Amino acid sequence: MSRLKRNDECMDSGSCTTRQIPEDRIGSQRRVVVLAVVLVIVTGQACAQDAGTSPGSSAPAGSSAAGESETTPAAQPIPTVSAIQGRHLLEEQTESNRFVITPFKPNYILPLTYNSHQDQTDPQLQNTEVKFQLSFKIPLSDHLFNTRARLAFAYTQLSFWQAYNSKLSSPFRETDYEPELMLGVPTNIRLPWFTNRLVTFGLEHQSNGQGVPESRSWNRAYVNFILERGSFYLSFRPWYRFPERAKTSALDPGGDDNPDIENYLGHGELTGIYLWGNSSLTVMLRNNLKSHDNRGAIEVDWSIPLKGKLHGYIQYFNGYGESLSDYNHYSNRIGIGVMLTDWL
């Protein structure tokens, strides 16, 4: 009832009330974001040599294996592909197999997560819960208009499960649904410090699947620039939110469910991935880029191989927008679990 009352007051007033954020929390968030940016830059510089020393590159001229004749023809260099190109090749090999589901975003389950700032509008919610994500895509056209452009449909579902909360009968606290249509265009554009391997144009809808007044949703168009440098990969994804009319009341099903969501999630996100062996470190950054009421989020993911497809997975999230229902609520969560598929 407390959340319903909060939403009614928000809609009746015509705009959501901005939450007061303690100065120490703002300062802490800014320090975390600055450290993350430094980490991304240093990682990119550190992996610059990987492009010239990656496995499969040819040996220096004049070198030969012990015991071989000097007249033995030199081995031809083995062509190498980036992790982005490698993923596309693997997808092409399996996309016609009806028993294979092509992953899109990472698929994982975190059986144990702890959020030190769980939404207190419902005092019965526990800080410990399960978080998991399911994501797949379906190719629709491999060579659209006789080009290398690939059209695909994707679906992602993110859930938060109060599995250990027996007092509330272990409910699913939140599930967000995100279908999208995307057009991927392979590129090979040389830029300072990076090579642009792929540009993706997309349309997406995200919703928590609830009815009014608990409904939260928005529609976006985005462009995603995928770049690489050695073992370091960068995704820059700005988006445009399609405007909606204002609600006439809290129970208006046709108006904007969350008119101030961009104040918390901003207008895009930046993701950096560093690969070494079969392990990966991923950092995602978002910020509204406002000097006043600055808000954003950082997510740090670390995966290490366990057995077969399974990877051990640790995830840390700090900021706003971890879920749609709590887009304007500050979260500070860490979780541990297993990952089935990663970005690369």
Written description of the protein model:
- The chain has one domain: Beta Barrel (Outer membrane phospholipase (ompla), Chain C), CATH 2.40.230.10.
- The chain is built from 5 helices and 13 strands.
- The chain has helices spanning 2-13, 23-46, 50-53, 83-94, 262-265, and strands at 102-103, 107-115, 128-141, 150-161, 172-190, 195-207, 217-229, 232-241, 268-276, 279-287, 296-307, 310-319, 331-341.
- The protein has a 12-stranded antiparallel beta barrel.
- The longest helix has 24 residues, at 23-46.
- The relative contact order is 0.16.
Distance between the termini: 43 Å
CATH fold call? Outer membrane phospholipase (ompla), Chain C
Question: Please, what is the CATH homologous superfamily?
Answer: Phospholipase A1
- Which CATH class applies here? Mainly Beta
Order of helices and strands: HHHHEEEEEEEEHEEEEE
Most strands sheet: 12 strands, antiparallel, barrel
What is the overall number of helices? 5
Q: Give the name of the CATH architecture.
A: Beta Barrel
Strand content: 35-45%
Number of strands: 13
Backbone shape: globular
Number of spatially distinct domains: 1
Low-confidence stretches: 1-21, 37-73
- Rg for CA atoms: 23 Å
Mean pLDDT, all residues: 83
Give me a quick take on this structure.
The protein is an alpha+beta fold and 344 residues long. The protein is built from 5 helices and 13 strands. The protein has one domain: Phospholipase A1 (Outer membrane phospholipase (ompla), Chain C), CATH 2.40.230.10.
Annotation keywords:
disordered N terminus; 13 strands; single chain; Outer membrane phospholipase (ompla), Chain C; alpha+beta; 344 residues; globular; 16% helix; 42% strand; twelve-stranded antiparallel β-barrel
